[in-house]
## 1
Amino acid sequence: MAETYEMAVSDLIAQDIEAYLDAHQKKSLLRFLTCGSVDDGKSTLIGRLLYDSKMIFEDQLAALEADSKKLGTQGGDIDFALLVDGLAAEREQGITIDVAYRFFSTDKRKFIVADTPGHEQYTRNMVTGASTADAAVILIDARKGVLTQTRRHSYLVSLLGIRHVVLAINKMDLVDWSQARFDEIVAEYRAFAEKIGIKAFTAIPMSALKGENITEPSARSPWYAGPPLMRWLEDAPVEDDLRDKPFRMAVQWVNRPNLDFRGFSGLIASGVIRPGDRIKALPSGRESTVERIVTLTGDLPEAVAGQSVTLTLADEIDVSRGDVLAAASHPPAVADQFEATLVWFDDEPMLPGRPYLLKLGTRTVSAQVGEPKYKVNVNTLEQLAARKLELNEIGVCNLALDAPIAFDPYAENHDLGGFILIDRISNRTVGAGLLHFALRRSQNIHWQAMDVDKATRAAAKGQKPRVVWLTGLSGAGKSTIANLLEKRLLAEGRHTYLLDGDNVRHGLNKDLGFAEEDRVENIRRVAEVSKLMADAGLIVLVSFISPFRAERRMARELMADGEFVEVHIDTPLAEAERRDVKGLYAKARAGELKNFTGIDSPYEAPEAPEIYIDTTQLSAEAAAERIYAKLEGETPDPGS
Amino acid sequence: MDAPKATQAWAPDPIPARAPLTAPMLTHLQRLEAESIQIFREVVAECERPVMLYSIGKDSAVMLRLAQKAFYPAKPPFPLLHVDTTWKFRAMYEMRERMARESGMDLIVHQNPEAIARGINPFDHGSLHTDMWKTEGLKQAIDKHGFDAAFGGGRRDEEKSRAKERILSFRSAQHRWDPKLQRPELWRLYNTRKGPGETFRAFPISNWTELDIWQYIYLEDIPIVPLYFAGVRPVVERDGNLIMVDDDRMRLLPGEVPQMKSIRFRTQGCYPLTGAVESTAATLPEIIQEMLLATTSERQGRVIDHDQAASMEKKKQEGYF
């Protein structure tokens, strides 16, 4: 199959070069990163991709065959790894091995592969390679499965915001193309990927050495219906969403050839621009209108993210290099204090308080880095206390700049949220950073004091805070189910707390009765306590009758978006009354209890609960399990 | 009542409806072009005296066009520097003069005075020819004019050791390339800070391949030296290389008689050191076709690279471009 495909391309080149050129001209570009050690077959895979896309010339192939016999590990067969390796030789020559870029193309796309073979410098190199990658190929040896280094690579891929991920499960030939083994690795990886915020990935069973599932579907894996690697690479979306974001362009150079022309040159980081669009220059905040988009080959009617252009404006506003031109309706924020993730690259550690130069976009300012809030063990993802960051360490710190800059959070826009730090004396690039958010002035005064926030606490617990609000009639089974649910969550290592009538009414709310205003205040206090507990990073289970919609909505609106999970434990009144575990219904019917829900006080059932449990259909155990499954089924997203 | 929740206050505002996009997704050449232009502008904005090394070949031709695009309507705000050996093809000198004239840019031609005095030539002096004229010549020119950044046409696909070359390659005040001083390059951020006497080589077309270069020349109709196209020219065959007899300085060996053959050159350089290929490819599509169907890599025509793989690395450490 692969042969036929290559023949067709060669034929086209031979017979109709202009048609070929026309097709080639329309190709898109995908930059991707390969992660994995030599043992996983990474070099073999890259060599195979180059070979299969005909990027190897005859003289190179002859050299490769000779080298394979001399140095190869494939018993005289072609060792594709030798095409890209050469590591030993480089080490002998004292040459740093960091990021190497390889190029190949198919009839659909041109590819730039960032290959990061280093071991000691792995974090620095991988972060560098990942910073320009649209996609990542994470290699796994099918015999070994998900290893510590797989987790480390995946964490860095996620940190750098690469959204298109392939899990290349390689060496499938050495596990007899076992689907069970493949499925096992995928399941294990999925559980981990969700934890670190990789929302989707494609797993491909392959053998780079044998060329199976590389360019064509392999006959060895009939159970695999997905694309071979090359097809996935050809079809992965590129910069798909940058155009849909608001316009941003950092001004690189003010073009002023004569008194009649003043243009602002830069590469469009996001969005679309057209003559007539209102723009705002930042940090000055002055506005103007785009007059022309000037290029050597004529003015453009519009320009999009990724293009280098020169804009002229209708008004003479003061704009210089380092400023950002942005959509006037949606400008980025301007600030001088931030929280950011830092990756340290230098042998000399990052020292809090020392001023470094920070370059973001086209702006360079002086920056002081605060003491790390924590550093991350990239192997275990544990957050550790730290006073400084050493070479290849990653940590979260606050930064104070000597001048305000325009920025977007890194997750929104890599060009306006990614920065490098430069040592003022050695001029070395000592670190890279990803901006999270600006710190507000009031917080800045004591910014040492706000070292730990909700996200940090939640991340430390490896979970997403939630308020699971169980509502239903007295005797519906809320507390029984909540107890079972808490046990289940605890067994999974979650951090929880259960609030119910027993532990609240006897303490916090012992001053409250059962009158309607008391019931409202009761729920208000429970909701506020839940909010504090969610802020502490906990999964809070609330088991209260909470009969009124208005109070439940008040509780919902106190919480962050998506944090509040309303569960209706629905038991018909007749059934609850028949059970009457505590004998309360009997007392209410006898008039000994006033304002009893269902008897002489209304119960307003939820109209759209997140989870609905019919206790006449489900046992308490099954109900707890169902709620648990729903909670875990939603992607936990710690620390983001 | 739908009171906004805490997180919604941070979500971006909806973007107002606007006319649909007419521009298709950027092609690979558009992305490469935008990246190259960004590099040109960044170096010009942050360095004091940049220069562009102009070696008259196809890569230089593309570089010149990209520089013009980066700064239009201004002229590229730096001169062109040709580090000459006096042994280039005559057609190259003609092209050099034409491009300097048409671009309106200053052209600096540097010839190592010591090499002139000693009569260094490719016949008698072997690798000294390259060392003296090119390596030493380039250092002299940079020192003489005080350039702090030099644009060059190096590409990462040319050779294994170039695959990891930075876009901005840092050189010490002695013009040495020290692997430990090279800086990581993230996103589109380049660290251009340097001390007195230290310089950069900047490679705006690092991520282009040979095919990209040809495709761009074709698309943009960029003038190139006619020797890239096949023509009937006088050649002699030496050590498996076809060497063109470009002027009367060519030393013929006893019994050697130039023969007229239809040839062309895949690279341009000193004529006695540059091997031709037999070809009838007379148009750009034909050249590209020949290249795509070729079975040997581009640099094979350069006699200088024929020693071991590490030679490029060694030359780079010594300051060869």
Note: The longest strand of chain B covers residues 231-238.
## 2
Amino acid sequence: MVALRFSLRAILLAGIACGSSFTSPESWAASCCGGGSSSSLIMPKFSRAVMNLSVDMENYNGFWNSQGDYRPDPKDSDLNQYRINLGYAHRFASRWQGSVILPYVWNNNDYTGLISNTRGLGDTTLNLWYETFDKITCVWKVRQWADLKPAVYLGGSLTVPTGISRFDNVANSFDITGRGFYRLDANLLVEKTIYPWNALLLLSYGKYLERNVNRDYGNYVEPTRRQLGDRMLATLSGGYTYFLESMDTLTFTLAFSHLQEDDGRIDGRPDPSTRMEKNSLAGTVAWSTMDRDWIFKGTLSHAVPRNDWGENFPVTNVLSFEVSHVLR
Amino acid sequence: MFFARRLLMMVALVLLAGCDDVMDDLTPSGEDKRPEVVFGSVGAQVGQIAPDFTLDDTLYTPYTLSTELGGARAVVLYFNMWCPICDTHANHMRQHIVPDFPTVRFFLVDYVSGSVPLSRSNQVASGYTDFTVLVPTSDSFTKRYQATMGSTVVIDAGGRIVRMNEDYLDGNKLRATLEALP
């Protein structure tokens, strides 16, 4: 009887639980390369708004060089970036939602005696999402083909360079909290839950806008037009949800992310020095209250310090804690 | 809705609070703001005479700028901190620039290690034993050259900084500068 009541409640709550606000597991920064980026924020169907607060602690552990070989950081270096991300998502219509994420960044670096402690805004992200579905797509059992239909979101993002970039009045590369370029992304997110399992695929293609540059690391330089290379992100994740006795849920998720940027451009010429690639693994534990109005998450994102897991980019581990409140 | 408006106001206030730096990236300028220099004066700007120096390399061999210029068409200083971008730059320079300019002296300047043994260790670990790595033991040298990660300084045989004291970027400007040397 208890088991039956449990499963009935579970079915009733499935609709609410499904799509409990999620953020992209991909979260990457790198203070020496800009950093301060934040992920997208999506709210569940039929909710009115989501407030989100997350804290990221990123520790640097060497880098991949341009050939993809792993190189440790110099001895006696301790590089860290901390971020607080404020997010707010709002539903404009039954199928439309938008969000804004504003990071605040602390750099705390000791690089073989070169000590830098700086802080400032990171780059702000504005997102707009269109939901291609009207009904909740999470199911407990597949009884017909229609039950396999996933939730598909189509989105666009604008990254606004509100951070402190290398083109601002900075003393060195450790001072920066943003990349200095506007970027437009086209996003596709596909999510399917067949309880207790779920899977998510996020594909994103971004284009940086070209800009003028007349200063680099604090020194005025011969003006040029610069552009970072096109950016591609793919994240695949799978998760398992436990329904607790209280009907709170505990969801464990494993994710793999691939991020790359092509050659940049300087006055129209290719600039291979900004090309990068990063592969990372992430594990997330999320606890949701019974009514799914509060979600607490802890995520560890790990970049593997081995050859050919990345290129021209720092190897980092990111520990994140996140609280979301869903307004119905 | 009320919350959204408050959030937007808060964001706007925060943006305005850090206005100077934020505005630089929000509305970037293409105006040439490099300071005018008195040609022949000593300093780090293009057109000035490069400050002379003597620095040890990672094998404790001393190198003096004026002496090096006596036997070369130019000296190139690349300011290196053993980071991903530095590695990309230095590797590009090694493969695509250095072989084409045998009469130019190329130096990596390790401005972060602070000691010869640590610098040697980083040089070996990073695979740059084929480069001469100069090791300033204080930051005054880097300040005198107004340099930071990736700064590339070209000094001609007359001791003058020519065309560049700026980021290596894709190496094209360095190549063009060296090709234009007398």
Note: The helical segments of chain A are 2-17.
## 3
Amino acid sequence: MTIGIGGAGSKIAAKLDSQAVLVNVSETELNKVPGGARRILASVHAAHGQFRGSRKNPQIGHDAYQSVRRELLELVRGNMVFCSSGGGTGNGIATGLLQDLSKVGDINTADKTFFGIILPYAKLESNEFVNNTIEFLTGPLAEAIDSGNTGNIVLFNNKKKFEEKISEDRYNQLLVDSLKLFLSIPDKNDVYRLLDGHIDHEDFALFISKPYFNHFTFLDYDPVKPFGEQLDANSNPLLLEPEAAIEALFLLEVPRGGDPTIFYNILQYFSEKNVSPIYSVVENPDRQKPFLTVAQLYSRKPAELVDDFNRITEQHVQAKVKKSLDQNVVLHKLDVNMEQEARRAVKQRGDTEDVLATLRRLGKL
Amino acid sequence: MPQSSQDSSKLFDEQVSRLHELHYLVLFWAAQGEGRGCKYNITNCFDDLKHAGVTRTKQTAVAAIEGLATLCFIDIRDERNRKNIYITKYGAKALEALVMSNQFQPKPSAFLEEQ
């Protein structure tokens, strides 16, 4: 099951899973999202009904979390949660959720929650989104990673959406398609003829239950070129750039009659990085060229995470800060006595004005 | 008996010719004060005349002011316990004549400078 929290998280969850549970603090927002099987309205104790969102304020989402806490903690067990880190609802409710998950004792592998977090694009999105994200990365997310009580965390990045001017719906579809391709790995092992290795549903579930960041990507694999170069050139543009892998998983799909031994180069590459990947090679008759799905698990400290997030647009953020500082001009209170000012102006004129001109001005000549 | 305009002009010239420097200065400062929107009163005028070194006595100053008022060159109005001086249109003509004749040079009014 998939759980979508807040506007952004709900849209992705509903696209990914027709049985998704959608959570929001606003009835209006909740009803805007098509699809999904169930909707949960988190209570914000508003006097005039709950038709407003959390207005980019994570505290509103965090307060509302208390009303759905017990239910959500039960629902997220062994499931996937999607939320954004920039807004108020996704950030606020996920903060509560991550804090609670961090506090409970060891969670069984099968009960770990896979998190998909949508990060804003700092260059073009509002400062509130950026600040909320930095607080989220360094606070509840870091705490949850340290506790080891989450599953994989996928950090989606809105960069491509803004740089390539993609509509939100189309971009969400790209995210979902990308996720579905990654999540289809064990199914492909079931469906296609196995040529080497094996990733069954249990292996895959174990992999995605590990408390690391997951960067998955896809590429048309060319066995002649060095694998490292191909991997670097094909990192998933929808996700934050990965760091050195701790663990890896790959599925190589070769065309009918293709060479099943080309995967050894990939193993060799990971071996040099001291990583022993889980892998499988299958024959997919629909493929014309070898196609590779790779997932790398990596770890980041909170400060490094923020660096990763900022690195994309560090210069731009600095320029933004400088601009706001430049604009922060202190306006001194002008203590002007208008009568004195008028007199001063008249005196100034009188000093230079000829007395006869004065008399003419006064209508006396 | 009604006067002809020629007689009036002659009388005006006669009146102007009898004015002294202190009369000129009183007219000048009164005009300047009015131009600046300041109330210029008899006390200010005496102080200025004394400061300009034209007279040292209040009686002289008052006599000059009263003389100008008698000739209708200035109006003296009692305002908030002050006798303020206002140049009349007739006085303006007299001042114009004095300025044009270049007979006297203007001196700064200490009172108006401070405003």
Note: DSSP finds six helices and two strands in chain B.
## 4
Amino acid sequence: MNESTQAFREHPEFASLKIVEAITMTISQEENFMRKIENEEKIEPKDWMPEGYRKNLIRQMSQHAHSEVIGMQPEGNWITRAPSLRRKAVLLSKVQDEAGHGLYLYSATETLGISRAELIEALQTGEAKYASIFNYPTLTWGDVGAIGWLVDGAAICNQVSLQRTSYGPYSRGMIRICKEESFHQRQGYEALLALAKGSPEQKQMAQDSLDRFYWPALMMFGPHDSESAHSAKSMEWKIKRETNDDLRQKFIDQTVPQIEVLGLEHPDKEIKWNEERGHYDSGEIDWEEFYNVINGNGHCNRQRVEHHIDAHEEGTWVRDAITAYNVKKNAKKAQNAA
Amino acid sequence: MNTEKLELFEVFIRSKRGLDHKHVGSLHAEDHEQALEYARDCYTRRSEGVSIWVAKSNDICSSQEDDAESFYDPSDDKPYRHATYYVLPDPVNNM
Amino acid sequence: MSDAIKQATLEYATRLGDDSVVLGHRISEWVSYGPFLEEDIAYGNVALDYIGRARMYYTYAAELADDGRTEDDFAYMRSDRDYRNLLLMEMPRGDFAYSQVRQLFADVYATVMLPELLKSKDETLAAIAAKAIKETKYHLRRSRDWVLRLGDGTEESHKRTQKAVDQLWGYTHELFDMDETEQLLADNGIGVDVSKLRDAWHAMVSSILTEATITVPEDSWAVRGGRTGYHTENLGHMLTEMQIVHRSHPGCQW
């Protein structure tokens, strides 16, 4: 440390300023990486990172991106039937946001040196996963409300936690998404509230949607920590910041009073406040159903992927036209310049 | 067939007059004009911006982590470039 | 406002609202079907602009009707025979070229029509026009660019674009028809005399199509009837879908 650095350090105004020790050349890249993780410094695109970290990130981030994009379908299914112009505009902008969030996440994933085309191919071949909640069908208008409230609500629990993830572009994407997402949950709850306070048929519609979407929403947090294949390493690398079970508990706790305000029946008959834990105890999730849907055999798995493939293939001639037009345009420009 | 032939653009947004443009993400587009339009639709759905820059990702030259020491450490030992380095008497210290 | 003028203005606002909701609905059918993600997001914005316009026009119509009806009563409780939108707007979504060609025709129409509506003595209509003009400027930029790309892109995209132009051309003539209602409003400085706008529309559309290497069709056929409720078969299906939930629960709040 030279003299002026010493003076700088001792300067009272800078007492709180952390001066990073010069990294000696002997420290390995791996140690350097872990040092950043431990110090809560973000990892940025050009930084060295272990191959496992990169792969783990690509898996989680692309899964997240695909979820946003596939998630457009079940709600998009109701845009043309939204029961009021206001609801139509809200739903349209909400589904459009999902596309936007997909874009932010693909954009962040591309910083890891993989193209969106490769990511989409993995989605279409089934190699990459997306949130299995979107493999449930939306059968009534009530489902639009339930998805906004419960599915986006569960997603927000996860995303709020991910704002602190160790990878810079992912963290910034999450911050941006969280800012936009709270409108999604609120509009869903408001839509369901209108039903719950409406006619007996509307109330029945709300209850039915709650019953069908509550358990799948809990499954969104993934398997129990003890069963989760990727959890431990993701926590160590601070890609994930809270465990599946902790986040799920948070969601269960926050949902109980929300169901009460709606005046609907809680779908979990075993839900009970546990004074000692300071949390609600709840019934067990049907894990067989969970793995069944994850493994591609849910109600809409095939339909969702086929929809995506069809739209993508139908878009081929449009994308080809853009390329051809661009080639012609550039040739003309070159000609004019010559 | 894929979207591969579209180019990757980085998007920078000035959120308010008087502030700097800030990097917000990227998108795929045919050319600069389309990239600007898509940036408007994809990144300013809630009036987040008053001005947009787009640049082809390939055109951006960035420093490498390996350069970090040679790039940034030298300024660590120039505390005299910071205002608070200079101790002045209290009555004039808000200078 | 005299009673006749008031009735005519109510009818006029309803017509413009119908145009907006029907086209907005058609565009919204593209959500999750776009050729790539950026376009999906961008086209959604156009749909939102049109739904927004519909709400403004209907809200004004409801205010003039003053009979307890709301914007949603106008959108959801009128049948296809009561709808007064231009036929062009109700034509099906079609492929991407078809949608963009229709969009170009509609955007150029809005481009020549809205500045006239902006001069309306009716403050509400003028205010809606002021907002819509800004939106349309952007819409036209998009649809124009798309028609250029598709028309002058590949052989397939060119073929699809030319086909869409040929198929839709005959539905554009009624865009410039006047009837008693609109004539009365035009004479009183409230509505737009669209019969005077055809030349400007034709010139702008022709120049874009020509640049896109697309042949501008001859005016050999025309289908009319939107403003009198004599629709194509497409509208009934569209409204059936759009109105099903609302009408299944009469009098309910959403």
Note: Residues 89 and 263 of chain A are 27 Å apart (CA to CA).
